[in-house]
Design a protein that fits this description.
The protein is an alpha+beta fold. It has a single domain, classed as 3-Layer(aba) Sandwich (GIY-YIG endonuclease). Helices cover 39% and strands 22% of the residues. The longest helix has 12 residues.
Length: 94
């Protein structure tokens, strides 16, 4: 099984959300559908701009926790290196 650490952004790229899941397409779809009334719902964060894949759930969780502590400039640099135009990558998922 694969596990994913992902970053979502809002329309203006001002707000970021970092999460972990074992089904990236389903989870991002949930954010887009506004199923959960949490952070991503309140701040309209539903554009997939970055993700990483892991085989070990513990490694994915460790990476997510580490990234959440990063300053904004580091997160922006990571996203830009992976997705220079900050496009919504949802439709590229299998």
């Amino acid at each position: 099984m694969n596990y994913y650490v992902y970053i979502l952004a809002n329309k203006s790229n001002r707000v970021l959300y970092i999460g972990v899941t074992n089904n990236l397409k389903r989870r991002v779809s949930e954010h887009k559908s506004k199923l959960n009334k949490g952070f991503s719902y309140r701040y309209n964060v539903d554009r997939l701009v970055y993700y990483e894949c892991f085989k070990d759930v513990r490694e994915a969780i460790k990476r997510e926790k580490r990234m959440k502590k990063w300053n904004r400039a580091w997160k922006d640099e990571l996203i830009t290196g992976f997705n220079p135009e900050w496009l919504d990558l949802f439709n590229t998922l299998d």
